[in-house]
Amino acid sequence: MSFANPQYFYLLALLPLVALIYWLQVRARERNLARMGRVDIVKSLMPDYTVVKQRVMSVIELLLILLAVIILARPRAGASRTSETKHGIELMIAVDVSNSMRASAGEAGDVSRLQRAKLVAEKLIENSTTDKVGLIVFAGNAYLQMPITGDLRSAKLFLSNLDTDMVPSQGTAIGNAITLASQSFSPSPNSQKAIVVITDGENFEDDAVSSARGAHRDGREVDVVGVGTAAGAPIPMPDGSYLTDERGEPVTTRLDEQGANEIARAGGGTFVNGNSADAVTVLKRSLDRLAKTELETVNYTRHDEQFPVFAWLVLVLLAVSFFVTESRSRWLKRFNIFNRR
Question: Are the beta carbons of 290 and 192 closer than 8 angstroms?
Answer without folding.
Answer: yes
